[in-house]
Design goal:
Length: 96
């Protein structure tokens, strides 16, 4: 039996240097959804680049991680939580 996976993902707006955290079961479809201006927060702020994602066995686990990451508010810490080096993104991110 195939196990369904759920994802928490991190997007970067190449237009504004903003990060977006979300969760989904279909990562590719959700990424296309954001880049086609079909999501409220991300609408007209693309193009979006997928920086990283984490896998979870249940939607509950994914939602808990999404909420935990969103509460961090610190972009540098969020990047680190996804295993990324904030110094690699200083030219792209709006740290204000």
């Amino acid at each position: 039996m195939e196990q369904l996976l759920f994802y928490v993902y991190l997007l970067l707006s190449m237009k504004y240097g903003k990060l977006y955290i979300g969760q989904t079961r279909d990562l590719l479809q959700r990424f296309e959804y954001h880049n086609n201006n079909r999501s409220g927060f991300t609408k007209n702020k693309g193009p979006w680049v997928l920086l990283a994602f984490k896998r979870f066995a249940t939607r509950g686990e994914a939602m808990a991680e999404e909420n935990r990451l969103k509460k961090l508010k610190n972009r540098q810490r969020i990047l680190e939580e996804f295993g990324l080096n904030p110094d690699d993104f200083t030219q792209l991110l709006d740290f204000n």
